[in-house]
Amino acid sequence: MITGNHADAQDAAQDAFIKAYRALWRFRSGAPFRPWLLRIVVDESHNQRRSASRRAELARHDRADRTSGDAAPSPEAATLASERRAALLTALDGLAEPHRMVIACRYLLELSEAETATALGCRCGTVKSRLSRALDQLGREMGEPDD
Asked: Helix, strand, coil: what percent of the chain each, to 5?
């Protein structure tokens, strides 16, 4: 199983069928339908797996950043968090507007890629590429090491 679990596989299949339906006009007449559809399902399964991996990584970072229990953060930790937030906002302000907008839609407004594409009037692929470039630039601005 490409996705790693049954629920993600079902989600990937459902998303793939929706994408295939929307892309049906691009299907070449006379070409075999099954391989075309299965390629879309496989691609969507890989996308689902990558997304799940990213979410798990973010959750690990989030857990690592939290203090133990319900204790209030130390003054030092609060100051560092405040400084990091200020640096992040400064770095966000330094991004080009299309990059700033895609980050705002995805992470501040918590829109999906499709909702972000609709809001920005562009394609999902454009959202993905802008988001990737914006996050790379933001990481460089924040002084984070390259992967």
From this structure: 75, 0, 25
78: left (phi over 0), alpha (psi -120 to 50) or beta: alpha
Q: Mean pLDDT, consecutive 10-residue segments, the chain of 147 residues?
A: 70 88 89 85 82 76 62 75 80 84 81 84 91 88 69
- Per DSSP, the residues of 103-127 read HIIIIIS---HHHHHHHHTS-HHHH
Residue 104 and residue 109: Cα distance in Å, rounded? 6
Instruction: Give CA separation, 143 vs 19, 41, 52, 119, 125, in Å.
Output: 38, 38, 26, 30, 27
Distance separating alpha carbons of residues 18 and 124, to the nearest angstrom: 14
